[in-house]
Structures
1.
Amino acid sequence: MAGNQRDTSTICVFDVDGTLTAPRQKICPDMQEFLSKLKQKVPVALVGGSDLVKIAEQMGATAENHVSQNFDYLFAENGLVAYHNGKKVGQENLLHCKGEECLQKVINFALKYMSELTLPAKRGTFVEFRSSMLNICPVGRSCSQKEREEFVAYDQEHNIRKKFVESLYKNFPDAELKFAIGGQISIDVFPVGWDKTFCLQFIEKGGYKTIHFFGDKTDPGGNDHEIYADERTIGHKVTSPEDTMKQLTELFFKD
């Protein structure tokens, strides 16, 4: 790309947790500054599993509408809530899609399953009902940072979420639902096809020749896997925000 002209044929799409921020933490000043420089080079999109309020908090925005204006595209809840240049362009609804009966069966099963788990800690908000997905959390989303870290270590050793996902698939084989390990402590539940590839339909309208995706949960079963492996994207597996900046430097800032 010659000079300082922005390359509008290329776009970078980022997962949030573990890619731009530490899980559920606010973006650090170094990353904010780095993204500002990147946005001068290419269009930038965010796609997170969390709702818009949580993404705004993590991005250091004072209000939800501000964060949507800070990026060319912003996709909350895997892209089921979609913004382009600060304007909402898409909104799906899980309840309308799957119905109360189906969702309540899943919730009841999940609550019973979690009631039989013994973990280092259990707190509150074990099921969070979002507009486009269920978020199931064995430790409870109201856990402290220390309790979160204890669960992460325990989960790595005992495969709590992996076994939980296997059990969900076994018990709901015909529900046409996807059960994906999300973030550090939870499982996302959404209709088949409502993974992060959902956001690509909006990006494709921009006519980009190259779509780079950066995420940390890119292995099968992780909530970045489908978009990472999609033939429409060039997938980049990262291990931390620092690794994200390192890989982007190699791609866009090497003279």
2.
Amino acid sequence: MGKARIPVVAVFDVGKTNKKLFLFDEHYKIVFERSARFLETEDEDGDACENLESLRLSVFDSLHEVFRRDEFDIKAINFTSYGASFVYLNESGRPLTPLYNYLKDYPRDLERALHEAYGGVAEFSLQTASPALGSLNSGLQVYRIQQQQPDVFQQVKFAVHLPQYLSFLVSGQMYTDMTSIGCHTALWDFEHNRYHQWVSDTGIAEKLAPIVRGDEVFSAAFPGSTYKVGVGLHDSSSALIPYLLNFHEPFILISTGTWCISLNPFNEEVLTKEELEKDCLFYMTYAGTPVKASRLFAGYEHELQTKRIAEHFNVTTARFKNVEIDWPTVDHLIEGQDIPVNLDAFGTLDLAAFANYEEAYHALMVYLVSAQVASTRLTLSHKSVKRIFVDGGFSKNSIFMNLLARSFKDMEVYAASMAQATAIGAALVIHKEWNSLPIPNNIIELRYYRA
């Protein structure tokens, strides 16, 4: 008798830089991991873009590898990847174009024409809960294909977001999931809870695959296989799932990295024009309910300014890794000061005003947290939120966490850590399809910060 095989779920987590495959056992422990990076290729305009063919081959290669291993019994497969990226598939499921980069310049006249046809940019953005972001509004990418490459558009059977393309590779089914449509795509009318009028007026609606919930699963396309295939999720929404399934009292999650995104799944109040101008938008949960979100480019700013401080004081940026908070320094810095809430404020200060790099770094964090608090407050509503969870890079920063706790005195502030939150979200959302145990309640480690 051989050893019993371990029941697992396979999750592909496709980031811009790293493409990962994880196998989780029924306790959500990682029992296998594989990582790949591919060289970017170019689209027809010479702009850098993801290599779709490498990605497709890599999915099949890594699946072959794990299916060959006797110790695992793969019960289900799911996918999560970055949003704002469309794959245009023809009748036989082949991509018709490169995977255009969401940072690609968008033709101004095209964007303007669309906005003006539907009440102007402010009105259009409010209805779709999408700040005008050019190619980052992925619906506008489809519009661009329709307008600029009509012959290609004609051959499109379905345009699907990247997570759903990955799922299609294994299930052979083309679907659209709510988390991908719901994220600054300019496709969804949040007030009426359906595609926006422009999507049907232009005929683009016919090119979008049928909508399913994010916890939907299909059978695999390969004869004789018994595992289930998830529909795939947009990564920001996926990272929220472990929190939604573990905590039922209203909370806000601040997911920190290059962007710091504050997510409030308990606020369905419509966006105002002011909020939109401050980079507020809606995301969507896997069940299709709105999540009010605000974005701040804080990780990027932190990197920029720590380099500036390091150069000025002639130290390496590694020095800032473990600076513990010094309250007297903080109090001295904010005494009689009105700290601005705009993110670039610290960049205008003369570093010669600070005694040493520790003081300058404390000042940077005071300014950064001031901007973060303003950004997070945009997602608050009349429904009282009792807890704030912070995950990602800043959750390990003592100064950031302590200052945040002091700013939100009436709430409990926690640093949350969970290895691979995005991948775990994609595994959890289809839990009942592969896992015979109850959902564990210790997936997220919390550390409480007192005001």
3.
Amino acid sequence: MTITTTKNTANAALPVNGRRISVAPMMDWTDRHCRMFHRQITRHTWFYTEMVTTGALLHGDVPRHLDFNEAEHPVALQLGGSEPADLAHSARLGEQWGYDEINLNCGCPSERVQKGAFGACLMGEAQLVADCVKAMRDAVQIDVTVKHRIGIDDVTSYDFVRDFVGTVADAGCTTFIVHARNAILKGLSPKENREIPPLRYEVVYRLKQDFPDMEIILNGGVRTLEEIDGHLQHVDGVMLGREAYHNPYLMAAFDARYYGDDTPAMTRAEVLQAMIPYMQEQLRLHSGGKGGGLRLNSMTRHMLGLVTGLPGARAFRQTLSDSSRLAEGNPALLLDALARMQPQAA
């Protein structure tokens, strides 16, 4: 595998079915190392970055926030913000760095995001979201999409989310990623917001019925291939969240099942072997930086769920979490972890 860093490069060929299956943007989880690991398991699934705020790109270290590996394609940049001009500038940067899509976060319910007047609270300002979308679409040639909830607080009327989608669609947005829960802006943590508000998939299905020309992607609580299959009878795509992170080898079935690519998926052992040269190069490139440089744990932490449900999974996780071994900074730790498992696990 050739390991290169991408910026200002032409996008790789994208899968025909595009966003049919995707992995959600998850703060502190779906960083570039996680996405590179996931890409070894599935060639076509669409990936999303952690949310990057416009402030971070306007005033911070742009390469640190936007750098990624060419092998990650297709990959979308999720932005957090509510100022059209700032979002347009940030979207333009995302396109220049080679991302395949710009996604606007209108679904995160955290108080920190609310203080910045973006995230889920934007659902109450549909026209502002439309203005933001238009500004970004005018700035870039790649897709601009919106990720949102089905309602906020105690607003459960279908009309609310229908009107939100309609207003934003009028600004030219054609893809909506819909988390099938309300966002409770006060009183619930982000974790509780992923668990307590009830899932109402029928609302997302109805959006597809009312907006047949729009690409409607369902998100929220999806855990199995059978559930994905059921949802795809009603919507254009399904986005997985925590399940893709905690049980990543589920994605080994995606390319054949949802993209018609019968190329055999890598085994778990092959996935780990493929990650070693990437990890070696990342450690070399980022050695001695601020805070001592990149640590091995920054990459291995994303791999703990690779053998979920298999005999020896606990020994695998223990080896990858061994602080003394991690301090050695040797990616061959991955193979040692696999060797501690029962032979049939790989």
4.
Amino acid sequence: MTSTILYTHAIIITVNEKREIYQDGSILVTENIIKDIGVSSKLLAKYPNVQVHDLSNHIIIPGLISTHMHCVQSLFRGTADDCDLITWMCDRIWVMQGNILPEEAYAGARLSIAEMLLGGTTTFLESLWAERYGFDQLVKAVEESGIRGCLGKVVMDVNPNQPAFRNKMHKGLVEGGESLESAIKMWEQFDGAAEGRVKVWFGARTPGGVSTAFLTRVCAEAKARDIHITMHCLEEEMDHEVFREFDMTPMEYCDSIGLLSKNTVLIHMCWVGGDDISRLKRTETNIAHCPASNMKLASGFCPVPQLLKEGVNVGIGCDGAPCNNMLDLFQEMRLAALIHKGNTRDPKVVSAEEVLEMGTIKGAKALGLDGEGGIGSLEIGKKADFVGIELKKAHQIPNYDPVATVVYATSAGDVDLVIIDGKVVVEKGILKTMDEAKVMEEGIIAGRAVIKRSGLEKNIVPKWPLIKE
């Protein structure tokens, strides 16, 4: 029997082509598709016999889309705070990730996904799922939770001339050229799984740490099979040293190996500039902006105002829990709207409307999911992925401009309802597809086990004296 529900009496921010907002709007959902959207009085009269779900005093937005994520890292939240990037990565995160077992990776993925769902993130891009984690474990977590996942399987070799700090990568994370063949097998086996909610990507390691010949091969294989690629790039100013060795600008190099395209998401990009921005626009390459991570690790400022002005597509991401420490896209949107104002001393740059686009329709475009039958906006024919925010807390009131309320006065804890593919995954703030308490308990157990196996028990402690007895 076909399921049809009319969600009524909400303020609906459609993010459609006209950027229309319905003051008292309704959405008709049949199975997993939006069949109609409009003013509540008209839709209630038009569909008198359908099931009604009253969303009075709610703002409805398209499901939020995180264009950069490390699912396994939620096990390590709070383990590397206030560190420089090299210490953070080489002495803590790589060590722990190199000691993870598949069942622990599964626990980390479930913890990340639970947090994302409860906070209104309906789609995410995992950037570097390692061979040792077990790719099937990540697919399983996506399938059972109801979320959408673009899953980047690590592809890498070892460049003998890589920067010295990359030689400190834990041996448990080092993969050879066979990682590409493994990723292709994962794509053949799992792309389109979970009723189409799983997409398999290549998660490429950064230039300098990987040989040019290998990256060129990765890009060729991706183009031949229409597989998307995500890669960290220009996160730190010192990354420019790598590209100087190639005697090319960073984006000239990336273009020369076939990386730049509409099927690529480059992460961070704090140190891109000049003609390289025009090259990004010309090749339709996408950027994942991660403001909290960039601030916490003191990486720098992604030039979002310039990128947007040039017409480059910019999505937004949380990155991993150890460099954030929350997977809250509302926080990311707020930060993205604030930090560039302060950095440029211009209160008009990167508006609330622009960052909401980054968290929805531009994120969908970055993942290749914005077209007909896709996601990122609330329109007839698109997938029923949306989030309900109930206006019941003092920090949200009064609500004169719903976009400003969403961006500047809303957090993950304000999410009341999450619909993905037409199915309710969060209702009244409660996760329906997983046992939240069990997910948290398993995450705690897994995190402690990995830290112990990594030999970091004495290092990961409070900086101030801890009194136990």
